[in-house]
Amino acid sequence: MRVIETEIPAVKRVIPKRHGDERGWFSEVFRVDQLAEGGITSAFVQDNQSFSAPAGTLRGLHFQTPPAAQAKLVRVLAGAILDVAVDIRHGSPTFGRYVAVRLDAETGEQLFVPHGFAHGFCTLEPNTMVAYKVDAYYSPANDRSIAWNDPDIGIDWPVSEAEAILSGKDKTAPRLASLEKLF
C-alpha cells in the first residue's frame, strides 16, 4: 500500500497493492500500520456505504463541525466517481482550494479526506457504490454542507448544473463565503 500526498498535502491518495492471477486479484485495502507510515492516523469508528443508480448523481459538499468533525477514507466498490475534498480551514494557505481525484472499482485507489475539509463526489458511471470509513460517528447536530457549485471554489465537475442529480439539501447549501470559522 502506498500513501501519496496530493497538491494539498493533508489530503492523501491511498493506493493498495493488488496481487493477481488467472482467478482475479487480492488486495489489502485497510492496514493501520501502513496508513500510519503514510501519515494517516485516524481511528476509524464507522463504515458508510452509498449507492447511486444514475451517473451524474452528485453528493456534497458535506462535513461535520467540531467536536464531531470527521476524517474519511473513501473508496469505490462498483463504478467510478470524481471525488472532491475542499479545504475549509480558515487561515490555511489552501483555504477554498480543492483536490479532485477519480476513484473507481477497477483500480481500487482511495482518498483520505482529513478534518477541516468538505467532501463530495459525482458518479461517473451508473450503479456506483461508494464505501468510506469515518473517525467520528454521524451527528445530525454537527452536519453541514456548502454549495457544490460555489463559483468561489470553482470545482470542475463532470456535469452541468442542469444535469447534476442532487438532494434537496445539496440544492440549497450555502456558499463557502458564509461559513463561520469552524476549523
TrEMBL record:
Pathway: Carbohydrate biosynthesis; dTDP-L-rhamnose biosynthesis. Its EC number is 5.1.3.13. It is an enzyme of class 5 (isomerase). Pfam families: dTDP_sugar_isom. It comes from the Bacteria. Keywords: Isomerase. It catalyses: dTDP-4-dehydro-6-deoxy-alpha-D-glucose = dTDP-4-dehydro-beta-L-rhamnose. Homodimer. Catalyzes the epimerization of the C3' and C5'positions of dTDP-6-deoxy-D-xylo-4-hexulose, forming dTDP-6-deoxy-L-lyxo-4-hexulose. Belongs to the dTDP-4-dehydrorhamnose 3,5-epimerase family. This is dTDP-4-dehydrorhamnose 3,5-epimerase. The lineage of its organism: Bacteria, Pseudomonadati, Pseudomonadota, Alphaproteobacteria, Hyphomicrobiales. The gene is rfbC.
